Amino acid sequence: MFRLLATFCLITSQALWAVEIPKTKDLQQAYIETGRNSSGQEKVVMLLVSQPNCHYCLLITEEIIHPMLLSGRYESTTFFSELEINTGGSIKDFNGQQVGANTFAQRYNAWATPTLLFLNNKGEEIAEEMVGINTLDLYGYYVDKALNIAFKKINP
Fold first, then answer.
1. How is domain 21-154 classified at the CATH fold level?
2. Torsion angle in degrees (nearest 10) through CA of 114, 120, 122, 125
3. How far is the CA of 31 from the CAs of 24, 36, 80, 108, 147, in angstroms?
4. Starting from the edge strand earliest in sequence, which strands make up the sheet with 125-131, in order?
């Protein structure tokens, strides 16, 4: 019995670490490739603004976003991406322009991490951003609520 439980825990933990939030370097191209579902509906871009050594970013990633990705429930409605700021990196925005990661985040006043942005294919906010985290208890509920609002805005 112990071996079975240990094997299950090992497989489960490996599955969680195998799931990565895409750190998209070209939002325009990534959205062209994966921004619509098989019914032709647009997906919501859920962009996690994070930074290295951010404990709360890791918490949201492990406790909220990884389970969302693993569930498959959001595959047809949500395009997940992560933007790391304060690293000197850059990204191509939704217009195909190369901009610094910090500059891109500043467009949305996303200076605190973690911040979740809910965007359409033009980079416009379509649901209220979620800044920081106080507790995990209802965080997933609020993420779902924001995603539902956003999806309905772009697919009336």
1. Glutaredoxin (3.40.30)
2. -50
3. 10, 8, 10, 19, 17
4. 78-84, 44-50, 115-119, 125-131
* C-beta atoms surrounding 14 within 10 Å: 9
Cβ atoms of 80 and 108 closer than 8 Å? no
Residue 92 phi/psi, 5° resolution? Answer: -90, 130
Place of tokens 């965007």: 119
Predicted confidence (pLDDT) per residue in 60-117, tens digit: 999 999 999 999 999 999 999 999 999 999 999 999 999 999 999 999 999 999 999 9
Q: Whose structure tokens read 């599955």?
A: 15
pLDDT band for 143, please (50, 70, 90 cuts): very high
- Concatenating the DSSP letter of every residue in 128-142 gives EEEES-S-STTHHHH
Pick from 78, 57, 70: nearest CA to 150: 78
What's the start-to-end Cα distance of the chain, in Å? 51
Predicted structure pTM score: 0.86
Between the alpha carbon of residue 90 and those of residues 15, 16, 48, 113, 134, the distances in Å are 29, 27, 15, 17, 29
Domain boundaries, the chain: 21-154
